[in-house]
Write a structure and sequence with these properties.
The chain is mostly beta strands and 133 residues long. It is 3% helix and 45% strand. The chain contains 1 helix and 11 strands; from the N terminus they run βββββββββββα. 22% of the residues are buried. The chain binds manganese (II) ion. Manganese (II) ion is lined by residues 51, 53, 57, 86, 92, 94.
């Protein structure tokens, strides 16, 4: 057993997010484990860019209120306690509501093929997309 102290929380990169997002890693899924786990905190209005996970993703909302959307689906409100599962390869985004913070834990399985990225990142979610226009 080991106790790990968190290093300083890094900010999520502008290439992956709109707005202020902070990410604390929990585990990077060292072999033989396969799941990468993080806590992600979104300020109001902040959200991911469009992206897809090679082996899918589970989100567990731990605080606040947020929004999520799959490509060609409706925007869905999410809140603390919700579990959101996204299948492998489905393009989607997730983030805070316009007027609330939102924190979630991400559980992301590593890509099955070695060397493949576990997440493909696409365009930022525009303000119009975020508003559902
Ligand atoms: Mn995702």
């Amino acid at each position: 057993m080991e106790v790990h102290r968190q290093p300083a929380t890094p900010k999520g990169p502008d290439t992956w997010f709109t707005g202020d997002v902070w990410i604390d890693g929990i585990t990077s899924g060292e072999s033989p484990a396969n799941a990468r786990v993080s806590t992600v905190r979104f300020t109001p209005g902040a959200r991911t860019a469009w992206h897809a996970h090679a082996s899918g993703q589970t989100l567990y909302v731990t605080d606040g209120q947020g929004l999520t959307q799959a490509r060609s689906g409706d925007i869905v409100a999410i809140r603390a306690g919700d579990v959101i599962t996204t299948p492998a390869g489905e393009w989607h985004w997730h983030g805070a509501a316009p007027d609330h913070y939102m924190s979630h834990i991400t559980i992301t399985e590593r890509a099955a093929a070695p060397g493949n990225p576990e997440t493909d990142w696409g365009a930022h979610v525009t303000d119009a997309e975020y508003r559902g226009e």
